[in-house]
């Protein structure tokens, strides 16, 4: 039995060297990344027993993904297919005033046609927490159905269900996301949402607290965590508001920092800590992730604890 089980797709990330454009590069560095696998890796680095559910083709590139997750301490429970491919995305680092560039190439991946019965649902039923994100249901109608089924299975078994909205405009429209997520969120206990997504996907005006309270009221979430980028994060838990300021950091690679926050938060909740502590660890894990290359946060607990302790008082409860 794993404490944290996540479900989603991992891809190969291909990046030119810093300072080179995708259109001009003659070399690409390879890494593995995906929202749900990133969460699992961050939590595993903090001592959580984690499992990642997905589908991959029987191919050397599929093995590359599995090898990367195992190297981060995550147990990959993968459906192997004879058809399909490993998705890729191309990431070009940006330097002000030039923004980073992301190009997806993920059509034809096995998770798009994966049915719930193909997965070992017993590992979902016996987990402490099950996590999915808004990226997977955006891939196809079948992926949306499978995500909802797994959330329902977990909820019926009394497993804590967590969901990160993680809206991607290159995958679907705001209205498509809102319609699809409305059904999934009925099975969710803990919601993670970026402040900007609360406005554009759910149409909520106001600040982070307004977003958290309105979503909690609409769906009955136990907790809502609103991420605010450079402003840190805010959580509403049983009516109480907790805020955590961001930790100052030099950014080497911003990709995956939101997933690191989710992984850090869930790891501390699974360890029995309260929401303010989990929020501080989540924000600190995200900050430390930004100092390293790649999507996954290989951040040891000692480093997170040291950062949180060095800035005691950054949290606000009210």
From TrEMBL:
GO molecular function: 2-dehydro-3-deoxygluconokinase activity
Keywords in alphabetical order: Kinase, Transferase
EC number assigned by the record: 2.7.1.45
InterPro entries assigned to the protein according to its UniProt record, in alphabetical order: Carb_kinase_PfkB-like (IPR052700), Carboh/pur_kinase_PfkB_CS (IPR002173), KDG_KDGal_kin_Halo (IPR054871), PfkB_dom (IPR011611), Ribo/fructo_kinase (IPR002139), Ribokinase-like (IPR029056)
SUPFAM superfamilies cross-referenced by the UniProt entry: Ribokinase-like
Domain called Carbohydrate kinase PfkB: residue spans: 1-301
Any Pfam family the entry gives: PfkB
Family: Belongs to the carbohydrate kinase PfkB family.
Name of this protein: 2-keto-3-deoxygluconate kinase
Annotated gene: kdgK
